[in-house]
Every structure is written in C-alpha cells, then in structure tokens.
Design a protein that fits this description.
The protein is mostly beta strands. About 0% of the residues lie in helices and about 60% in strands. The strands form two sheets. The chain has a four-stranded antiparallel beta sheet with strand order 1-2-3-4, with no helix packed on it. A hairpin with a 5-residue loop joins strand 2 and strand 3.
Length: about 90
C-alpha cells in the first residue's frame, strides 16, 4: 500500500492508499485484526495515492486523493478528487 492513510471511523480503522496489486488505483479497506478487507476502489489510476480523510459524522466522511487516470498521455498530470463517503447500515 503506497501513500497510506489510517483513520478511526465508526469505531473501526479505515486504511486507504495506492493499491499495489494489479493496475494502480486508490482503494479503501477496513482493518480487521491483521487482515485488510477491501471496501471500495475509487475512480483512479496511473499516478495515484495519498488519500486524506475528514469524518463528518458516524456515517459520512470526505476523502481527497490525487490521480492521473483522466489525463493520461506522457505528461501524467494528476488532478485532485473529492469523494463523499457514506456507510450503509
């Protein structure tokens, strides 16, 4: 996991960062003991990583990250994205 994030949310530990298995992407996981359980893969690719996390309440949060999946080409310019997360009860 590149550029990792570790945050407490809803009484659990949220882990995020650049997924190193398969094509590069930014993914989120719950840390369950010593096991990472993937919960989502964000629209991302190429140069992507370093998510930032802001909990809004027990069920909602904001997640920022950068990615170059939309720019492509040889310049690999990255853009910054903001995702609104919601936990499903």
């Amino acid at each position: 996991m590149g550029g990792p994030l570790l945050a407490a949310w809803d009484g659990r530990l949220l882990v995020g960062g650049r997924k190193s298995i398969g094509p590069p992407s930014t993914a989120l996981y719950w840390l369950d003991g010593s096991v990472l359980v993937e919960i989502c893969e964000l629209p991302s690719g190429g140069d992507t990583s370093y998510p930032g996390f802001v909990p809004l309440d027990e069920r909602h949060a904001l997640l920022s990250y950068y990615s170059s999946h939309e720019t492509g080409g040889t310049t690999q310019q990255a853009a910054i994205y903001l995702a609104r997360l919601s936990l499903v009860p």
